[in-house]
Automatic annotation (TrEMBL):
PANTHER family: DEHYDROGENASE XPTC-RELATED (PTHR11552:SF115), GLUCOSE-METHANOL-CHOLINE GMC OXIDOREDUCTASE (PTHR11552). InterPro entries: FAD/NAD-bd_sf (IPR036188), GMC_OxRdtase (IPR012132), GMC_OxRdtase_N (IPR000172), GMC_OxRtase_C (IPR007867). Its cofactor is FAD. This is Alcohol oxidase.
Amino acid sequence: SPKPFRTHITNEADLLPSYSYIIVGGGTSGLVLASRLSEDPSNTVLIIEAGPLVEPVPEQLLYPGWSQLSLFNSSIMGPYRYPSFPSAPEEALNNRTSEVAAARVVGGGSAINGMVFLRGSKRDYDSWGVWDYNKLLPYFKKSETFIPPSPEQERQGITWDKTNHGFNGPIQVSFPNGTYPAAGRYLEAIESLGPKRSVDTSTNAVGTFWMPSSLDAGRQERSYAYNGYLQPLMDKRKNLHLLSQRTVTKILSGKKTGSTVPITGVEFAASEAGKKYTVKAKKGVILAAGALHTPQILQLSGIGNPKLLEPLGIKTVIDLPGVGENLQDHPYVSVPHSTTYPTNETSGGSLFDPTFFATAYDLYLRTRTGPFTAGLGNTGAFLSLESITNTTTLNSLLSSIPAGSFLDPSTPVSVKKGWEDQLKKTIENYKRADSAAYEFLPGLVALQHPLSRGTVRLRSPPNPFSRPVVNYRTLSHPLDALILAQGVLFQQKIFKSPVLAYANPVDNSAFAAIDEADIGAILEVMKAQVTASLAHPCGTAGMRAREEGGVVDEKLEVYGAKGLWVVDASVVPLVPGQHIQPTVYAVAERAADVIRGRKV
Ligand SMILES: Cc1cc2nc3c(=O)[nH]c(=O)nc-3n(C[C@H](O)[C@H](O)[C@H](O)COP(=O)(O)OP(=O)(O)OC[C@H]3O[C@@H](n4cnc5c(N)ncnc54)[C@H](O)[C@@H]3O)c2cc1C
């Protein structure tokens, strides 16, 4: 009798000789594309994913065990991530390195992330210059099923507005059952200094708010690209294959005609020493390997800057200097305060007590309530520069921007031109109330719109199985450090607010002893303490004009190629002032319609 159809194939012998589309990377964006492109039965679709297919287990689906169970517990989440590797030493951070985090599992970043689920402001997307907020809005809605707060949650002060939400998409978005009263007080303390509460982040992304999560409200479990987009199709949709634990080593191309190189398929292998296989794509190849690995694959395939490729012995197939440039993330600095009433008990320590932990875990498994349903505090603020500084400070910061780009000296001319445009937009946005300069959480302050730009480059000798060289170049532009310093001062003010006096906050940070006028001393501490990445890398195959360092056009097709698209965080040209997974979902949803040739 014929073998039953299986979506997940584990043996190359089960591959079709060719597919309409091959998707490289079965992560957040890759699974959106797989689901949408295979809706059309005339398409055959193959996903090739470097990591394993892990059927979700409670430890992975848990909302928040945040610090203990998911993000940072390598014994549980280790198998779902690339082994940690250090970034290149950073000059502006005393040559320190940061750990580079990237998922390697079916579901990608959405399987291991902190589940914060918020979009940036309209202004942030309108600053992209190609797609804008109105083009993305239908796709923000399409990707989510928003679950409004329960009456109990509304009593806690959680508000919402239905205008810009979706109610029928694959990713469940809701507020967790568990919250801590102190979390709300943090917001009130900020509001006592001027900033306002936002009713709903999808209508106003700048202000203080309760943060929704990618969370199934009923089960209080993680909602992510695998259980949202792919799992419901497994073994049902016969035109869709997933090949896991295979690394794509190269994109294959045919003979150039005119100025265009046709893309014909991919080469892949299970390990460095393993046999190399090829598979053909009839309509094309879709890169969804994330902002750190997509540029690596392009460069390994000869698509990039000849000045970087040729010394490594790689023949240039498409001269595209923007590949791997323009790297952006959200650097942050911890400004911890101890309180007699923890502002965030979950990550603050009580779950580190084994007895408390075991009781809380048991409660979660039985009733889906308790500390395991409360993560990160679920409150935060995304605030503009003008809302936390006075006019004199704002004007002095923005009128004395040091001349020069502070880009890596090897930055290609086109990329520099693109950066100059981004500089103008970023400075303009710093003067406005509708674009966030900062994220404030009880323990940290993160910079939302850095002017510094990093790079992702191949290691020498080039090897698809070694990690790329990631140089965040954090705070290389001096204005970034000055703006972040204002955030540190504001965080200290928050904890001095009478609203939090009942909790007796004590500033435990290295900033505590510094006089607020001594910006130089604050900058010195930041050099020693800033962390480069909130795991929001983007921009490394930016959607912008080719003469401005762009890698893909507005159809997300790689310049100079026919049948090669990028659909992941790499294409985001200018990082929004927010955690970026909802943006990645929306971009991927729109990409699917664009690639299918639908009206968008
Ligand atoms: C630890 C962490 C915490 C985060 N927290 C949040 C948060 O709370 N809220 C939020 O909004 N965002 C968060 N993010 C960011 C968000 O999850 C990512 O921006 C998003 O998942 C990126 O999606 P992507 O499709 O671009 O890449 P990914 O989802 O990373 O997918 C890329 C996939 O490609 C695969 N791949 C790579 N190279 C190859 C190759 N050569 N061959 C085959 N497969 C390959 C990888 O294994 C991976 O599965 C976090 C990210 C991380 C890592």
